[in-house]
Specification:
Length: about 700
């Protein structure tokens, strides 16, 4: 029981966040400086947004950079306000100056909104205390936050990576169970594939997250992570074999009609899924796994394969499930990979600055968007005679996300949660609860809010709003007077953020579909080259296989977000959904061919070269088709037709996969010929009477 309380991800996270916030308040209360304790607890909010609690091999370096930026922004705001510089210019200049952090790395990009939050908090402090005091609060607050988290992660070493691995094993279990639960339904890809795509996408996203964590922790240099690195390699083997597909629905249907194969395959999948969930708990709660074997299940599959030698489905399932069973039994990977091969390198500052100054830079567009939104919020607050519009500005930053769909959802949760929280707080303030009970209630509300924030942001906002109102009450004794004003400020901030995401240089995902599709084809082409090379090596194959999966996931994510955007062309996205479906089949074939190439199931050099040429021709036809909007022959200039059949008679498993890849590429080329002409042109939907 105690293991589940201590190691459970939500509980562990909530305890850490609550303690780092509430301990300064408790110390301030004990020494008679409650107001300073409450102000001190504001700093962890900036540190959270900046990701300074992310375990990293440069943990203290990032802490120093973050604390310096917080203090620097605070000092800049106070000095510039003293010189009567308009607030829109101050915040806009800071946003554009700090926007270069996004060019350094994804993790550094989080310093931009965090530093702006620190500057906005300073607005409420400027004039009420000396210039040096907010700086001291930010420096000491960041130091406290860093030391506390360093001690916490030292006590629970490996826990962040354990949480990610546990989630990965659970996602693989769900994916395996869903994929093989109803085989006969897979004959209709439009109905069966989207749920499987979503599960596959989550699994690959978690694999990418584990890769990033291992790189940030330099896990390959520490013996403490040896068991977790092995568990991750096991997960890569499992994902490789679970995600493969023979994609012969007519053969599946024939085998199901002739035998009880569906029940046997489902039995194997359920045993595998159950074992994966057990391993997920073992990893998370620091337990040694129990013995395992599935000889009976594999024997039943092999029996069906022997009884139906002409049907490839039985042999296919028996082979892959036997490999899965072997990995689960031994808890060792089938082969050792170079896990750090795809580590992300941080771009040097001068190179990042050069990239940032380009008008094509997404980081520059994002910083300019934030600068304009903060400027509009500041001007609106001036029109409304608000001397310190920190709530409006903070709302703009908190609800602004990377995409339209995510921002819209965050706005809905933020406004609903704030309204409910302000209503509850306004009602509760009438009871004049003693200070001690108020602080105790705030402690419990904070803990509960952090327990649910990952899954229910709206409900967590209710709790945070209540604690914010009571913090104002304890600081100024006027919390009740701000309730209506704070809600109006929240609405204004959300409207500005929504308008900014829609009108200010929006990064519409539907406009990125073409580039993401091209990148996916490029990754497929490189993978097929490696598979059909004369001597395929395990490490490059494993790396490229994951690149193929990640490129397809980027395309799939763009499609999902595009379907939530305003005024999209439904016919265009329907075509793209079918295109992505065939792209997923190619990914599954590449997963299967990677295992075959590693097992040295090779073609003759001449046949491999002919298949490689055919696949490259088909891939290039698809890539050229993406460059043209017309349905004519401009996309097919100087491009040879891929031969339909390269061999006569029975084909090996590898050849069957290659033939199906060629078939999918042919279909994707046909879809592209009509899809790109229908792509949406955003902005048209804003005009009355016109369609996007």
């Amino acid at each position: 029981m105690w293991r589940r309380l201590i190691y459970h991800p939500e509980i562990n996270y909530a305890l850490r966040q609550t303690l780092v916030l509430c301990l300064p308040v408790a110390i301030g209360l004990a020494v008679g400086h409650l107001q300073q304790g409450l102000l001190f607890s504001l700093v962890p909010a900036c540190c959270n947004i900046a990701g300074l609690d992310t375990p990293h091999k440069r943990f203290f370096k990032r802490l120093i950079v973050g604390g310096s930026l917080f203090a620097g922004c605070s000092l800049a705001v106070q000095l510039l306000l003293a010189e009567s510089i308009p607030l829109p210019l101050i915040l806009g200049g800071l946003a554009l100056l700090l926007g270069v952090t996004a060019e350094l790395s994804t993790l550094h990009a989080r310093l931009l909104p965090a530093s702006l939050i620190a500057a906005i908090f300073t607005l409420s402090l400027a004039g009420n205390m000396p210039v040096w005091e907010p700086l001291l609060i930010y420096v000491l607050g960041t130091l406290w936050y860093g030391l506390f988290n360093w001690l916490w992660f030292w006590m629970w070493r490996e826990q962040p990576l354990r949480e990610s691995l546990s989630l990965l094993y659970r996602q693989l279990a769900d994916y395996c169970e869903a994929k093989y639960s109803l085989l006969t339904q897979h004959a209709d890809p439009e109905k069966a594939l989207p749920p499987l795509l979503a599960r596959q996408q989550k699994a690959v996203d978690l694999i990418s997250q584990c890769y990033q964590q291992m790189h940030m922790l330099a896990a390959n240099q520490h013996n403490d992570y040896k068991r977790l690195l092995r568990a991750f390699q096991v997960a890569l083997d499992l994902q490789e074999h679970i995600s493969v597909s023979l994609h012969q629905p007519e053969e599946v249907q024939k085998l199901v009609e002739q035998s009880h194969a569906e029940a046997v395959i489902r039995w194997n999948a359920q045993v595998v899924a159950t074992r994966l969930r057990e391993l997920a708990d073992d990893i998370l709660y620091h337990r040694y796994p129990q013995r395992f074997n599935m000889d009976a299940q594999i024997g039943a599959l092999e029996k069906i394969a022997r009884q139906h030698p002409d049907n490839p489905v039985g042999q296919f399932c028996a082979w892959h499930f036997s490999r899965i069973a072997r990995v689960l039994r031994t808890q060792r990977p089938l082969y050792v990979r170079d896990l750090m091969a795809d580590k992300q390198r941080r771009q040097p500052l001068l190179s990042a600055l050069k990239s940032y100054l380009s008008l094509k830079s997404p980081a520059l567009r994002n910083a300019a968007r934030i600068a304009v939104m903060l400027g509009i919020a500041s001007l609106m607050s001036t029109a409304l005679h608000l001397p310190k519009p920190w709530w409006i500005l903070m709302t703009v930053l908190l609800v602004t996300q990377n995409g339209y769909g995510a921002t819209r959802v965050r706005i809905l949760h933020r406004t609903g949660g704030t309204l409910a929280g302000l209503t509850i707080a306004g009602f509760a303030l009438h009871f004049h609860v003693p200070e001690g009970f108020t602080l105790l209630g705030m402690l419990f509300i904070t803990l509960i809010s952090y327990l649910i924030i990952r899954k229910s942001y709206g409900w967590a906002t209710v709790g945070f709003t209540i604690t914010a109102v009571y913090s104002l009450q304890l600081l100024t004794l006027t919390g009740e007077q701000f309730i209506v004003t704070r809600f109006i400020d929240t609405l204004i901030g959300c409207l500005i953020a929504f308008g900014g995401m829609v009108w200010l240089w929006p990064q519409w995902q539907s406009g990125l579909l073409r580039q993401n599709a091209h990148d996916a084809l490029e990754a497929d082409q490189e993978a097929i080259r490696l598979i059909l090379s004369s001597d395929p090596q395990s490490a490059p194959l494993a790396y490229q296989r994951m690149r193929v999966n990640q490129a397809h996931n980027a395309l799939f994510n763009s499609l999902n977000q595009a379907m939530q955007e305003p005024g999209f062309n439904s016919r265009y996205l329907d075509d793209m959904k079918l295109w992505v479906t065939h792209s997923q089949f190619i990914v599954e074939h590449i997963n299967a061919m990677t295992t075959l190439a590693r097992e040295h199931t090779m073609l003759t050099p001449d046949l491999a070269q002919r298949y490689l040429e055919s696949c490259e021709i088909a891939l290039q036809r698809c890539q050229q088709r993406l460059k043209y909007d017309d349905a004519g022959s401009s996309g097919d200039v100087n491009i040879l037709e891929a031969p339909q059949t390269l061999t006569q008679g029975p084909m090996s498993t590898l050849e069957q996969h290659l033939q199906r890849v060629l078939g999918h590429l042919s279909t994707m080329h046909t879809i592209s010929s009509v899809a790109w002409r229908q792509r949406p042109h955003h902005g048209i939907w804003l005009k009355r009477g016109e369609k996007g």
